Amino acid sequence: MEFHEKAVLVTGASSGIGEHIARRFVAEGARVMGVGRSEERLAALAAELGEAFVPHAAELSDMDAVEGAVNAAVARFGGLDVLVNNAGIAAMGLALSETIESWRKTMAIDLDAVFWASRIALPHLIERKGCIVNTGSLSGVAADFGLTAYCVAKAGVIELTRCLAIDYAGEGIRVNCVSPGSTLTPMSAGVPQVLTDAYRASIPMGRQGQPGEIADAVLYLASPRASFITGQNLLVDGGISAHTGQPNIPALFARLRG
């Protein structure tokens, strides 16, 4: 098993992509502390995965709670090999309608917590020549309508990834980012069908991603197979980022001919 006895901390582990990341690390032999807001869901996951998974409920908009989660993982495992900063929230909002409370909470969870968890974890990761994998977003690479705070926060995560990568490469630390496109998670379950159809129509592969596919990318970047990869943002988006956004001209001409 690729991560046998490695100590891993995963934030946002109570559902969706984070849950799949935690499951994959456990399956590969790691000891995982999963951090999330839902104590109930984390407890259920711990009951299923056994002693290899340690639940830790925390509100990651609180930097003291972020620090407490990292310190709890180090105390439990005796050190840390991998930090996965995955927790995130998103809320619709334009510059003229976004409240300061919504802006600050998005920044706190999506960006500040990534910085603070990394800062607290770095001395322990340096001891073991460990690594950090952050969850960014396609929305951090280009803008989405009506998601100003989320897009800005995720762009910050991607740039923070690069900064940490070059600053700590000499200490043996690798820092990378995985940026999903539209992915089928519990968060997307309540999205109206018309929006789901629009997402699928925009993806060259013709479907949304699965959480396990994002988890696969995270585990690869955390593994020795990626030993010469740092400061990178891996887009897992079904090909959206390869597209200019212009119409599918051959398809339009085919419709006209039909």
TrEMBL record:
It holds the Pfam family adh_short_C2. PROSITE patterns: ADH_SHORT. Its EC number is 1.1.1.-. Residues 6-195 form the Ketoreductase domain. One of its GO terms (molecular function) is oxidoreductase activity. Coiled coil: none annotated. Keywords: Oxidoreductase. InterPro entries: KR_dom, NAD(P)-bd_dom_sf, Sc_DH/Rdtase_CS, SDR_fam. Signal peptide: none annotated. This is SDR family NAD(P)-dependent oxidoreductase. It comes from Novosphingobium bradum.
